[in-house]
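Protein modeling request. Please complete all fields; requests missing the sequence field cannot be processed.
Requester role: graduate student
Desired output: 3D structure, token encoding
Chains: 1
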Amino acid sequence: MSAHVMPLPEPDPREIERGITELERFVRAYAPAAEPADVDGETRQVRRLRREVAEARALVKLQSDPAPLMAETRRVRRRRRAVAEAARLHALAQDPAAVAWQAARWRRVLTTVGVTALVAGLAWSTAGVHATAAEGTEPSDLAWWLAWLVEPCISAIVLMIVGARGYLASRGRPLRSRLLTMIEIGALGMTLLLNTWPYLPGVAGQFNAVRLLVHMIGPLVAAAAVASLTVIWAALAALPVGPVPAGLTDPLAPLTYRPDARDAGVATAPAAPPPGGHAPSQDVAKLVARVRALIAAGELPAAPSAHRIRNALRCGMDTARMVRDALSDT
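Delivered output (330 residues):
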């Protein structure tokens, strides 16, 4: 039995032409590029060098742009903040008010240290003075107890003079008195003598230099504290201070009082206008409207005082007075 084979149709010439075109396009797309012929010395090494030169020119052009250098890093920003803060602190330190505050602060600290040393030295010498003054007495005797008052009596004079010097120095008027200086020297000298008398050569049965020095510590510390405080206070009082800003020394506005009720029988004068430069920042008309609303609601009396208005509106006293006067005028 023979198989019957159907003849294949002959291809269309246009299809053959289309297939050849697609095949040529495929070959051109995927075929390796042929090395161009060397023209005028265009070898592979020349082309590679030309690419390197072009790359170098592009890098030079980009590197000449200052934009990357102008961008601030985190360290630069931190340093800028630190520099700005230091500049503000330096400017604040030159302000006359800041200089006065710093001088007062150091005066207080140094005075505290000096007075502490003075009191400690006088307390140390109290025991030595008592030993000298109570010699030959017994604790059961009245003289033994009264001997404890010898050193405090002398120290009270020294502390009084030191306190006067400190107060006047803080007011810019250092106390310079030869009489007071002589009194201080005499009181401290008496304290030193009473502390060391039993231990001086020729008085003590057996001289001991160490014991003499120990009993000299209290009076010498007190004398050094008094002398140092006097010099320190005078130097602090002589510190140059610039003019104080005018706002810190302006006189205060006079206070006025007005009762809540108009029929209280007390006549009050209207408040003086606020001084120049102290005009309230709030709009008085709006505040008057708010106060009238509070009066209508029963939260404020018919004629509220400036104090009640200030508490209700949470404003300044000058503004409250202006609102009160505006209410009374309408």
